[in-house]
Amino acid sequence: MSSVDRRNFLRAAGGFGAFALLTACGDGGPATTPTPSLVPTTTAPPSTTTAVPPDWDNLKARLNGRVARPGESGYNAARPFNTALPKTAPAAVAQVRGVDDVQACIELARRSHIPIAARSGGHSYAGYSFPDNGLVVDLRQLASVEVRDDGVVEIGAGAKLADVYAALAAEGRCLPAGTCPSVGIAGLALGGGLGVLTRKFGLTSDHMLSARIVTADGVARTASADGDADLHWALRGSGGGNFGVVTSFEFSTEKAPSQLTVFHLAFPAGASAEVLGAWQDWIAEAPAELWANCVVEGGSPPKCRVSGCYVGTSARVNTMLTQLVRRTGSRTTSRTVQTLSYLAAMRHFANTSGKTGFVASSRVLEKRMDEPGTLATLVNDRPEMDLLFDPLGGAVSTVDGSATAFPHRSALATVQVYVDTEAANQRAAASEVDTVQREIADQAGRGAYVNYIDPAQRDWPQAYYGNNLNRLRQVANLYDPDGVFAFAQGLRTR
After folding, report:
1. Of the four, 47, 135, 204, 335, which is 20 to 30 A from 215 by CA?
2. Handedness of CA 277, 312, 184, 485 (dihedral sign)
3. How many CA atoms lie within 13 A of 145 on its CB side?
4. What positions does the domain FAD-binding PCMH-type occupy (predicted)?
5. Which of 141, 219, 235 is nearest to 187 (CA)?
């Protein structure tokens, strides 16, 4: 698999990469009393009040996998995907091979009071899967994908989407998820999971039947509707795990569509306001089988394109695309429509190569934009910046906003603010992204998508979790009372 030019990929497919941090987090605010249903199957042991120095030699002896310290083989291989992030220096990387290894890692972190984070695909936008002076639990060897006769798939937390899709397609099944091939299933699913089949089949997390997780007390649990149900609720959309280290999942799957029609429309520079306005009404009225994003590419003036996927044949797609173009009052500079198999379509959206340094943030469009042109002008004279509008609706909106931790069920779309950059220019790019995302919040909605986690987002607890925030904090306080998994933007914070 070639490396991914993230900007070109996002332009085509809407940016579905989710970070692979699976660690639990805490609230930093007053504790709340759990509701009676919030009862774990076991209680946490007393915390270690006095930290003891981490015994790395003992951990090496206990693990079936390897422990890599700085300068040793395997240490740098676990670094985040995003090359623009400032370099951090964890104390060690544990390449785990099973639940016992994860339990040993958590025990060391709890006793030594050091940060601990899990690493799957490494796509955390903020690099939270590689914490300074902490322990990285590298899950990449837990990558099995097994499709059962009943259509349920068991997936190891270290599996990448490219391998998940290949295994599912071989059995005639599909799971709605992202399209970036190197994204880990765990980070994506735990934050919700958006992709080109979202409107038809729902979020990835909506298909999560169970999650095998080791919590802060070192207990291996199976969170499902039948056991640790509140933890199961929280894992479906809270982002980054937030409650422990997940080692595997069970997902329900769908019959793979016999054919998917992919398409790309490009519009001339200067037409962005009209295209964005037409797109929002067109996609809101479209059948659930249609997913299409709208990307406004920065420049003077900005350009605009619409790309997507339809579960069905090209004849119906061409009719709908013609309707969109008429609504814009513009013409297209290019138009391509192609019918592919399920697996070929997933690979189609992932088939790019190039740079991997970026800064990004997001907002959620809670309703129709009254003046879409004002958003389009935000990238005037910002040639490295894109605004990526990814639709929700369809199957996403048929689930109540309190049914899972993902709160944005009634929203029109997410919008990602994205800038290509490298480490030398990261601060300047981050400042530009922050300015634009705040403008979008003032105009279109204050929600945000946790899988596009942004360290600069000031209102992130409410933005990510909405009305589910208090219940999530209750669950975090119950399963991780001592903040073993706390980090800067977690439900438990350091």
Report:
1. 204
2. positive
3. 23
4. 86-256
5. 235
Sheet containing 260-267, strands listed edge to edge, beginning at the edge strand earlier in sequence: 334-340, 260-267, 303-311, 290-297, 385-391, 413-420, 358-365
Give the full edge-to-edge strand order of the sheet including 208-214: 145-147, 153-156, 245-251, 208-214, 220-224
The whole-angstrom separation of Cα 96 and Cα 75 is 13
Secondary structure class of 319 (helix, strand, coil) = helix
pTM, whole model, 2 decimals?
A: 0.91
Helix (H) or strand (E) holding 161: helix 161-170
What are the start-end ranges of the E strands in 127-216?
A: 135-138, 145-147, 153-156, 173-174, 208-214
Angle between helices 161-170 and 342-350 (to 10 degrees): 160
Beta bridge partners of 360: 418
Residue 327 structure tokens: 């609504």
Q: What is the dihedral of CA 253, 254, 259, 265, to 10 degrees?
A: -80
What pLDDT does 481 receive?
A: 93
Q: Give 192's contacts (C-beta < 8 A, 6+ positions apart).
A: 18, 203, 204, 205, 236, 237, 239, 406, 449, 450, 451
Rounded to an integer, what distance in angstroms lies between the CA atom of residue 319 and that of residue 487?
49
Element of type H or E holding 229: helix 229-235
Give the length of the chain.
494
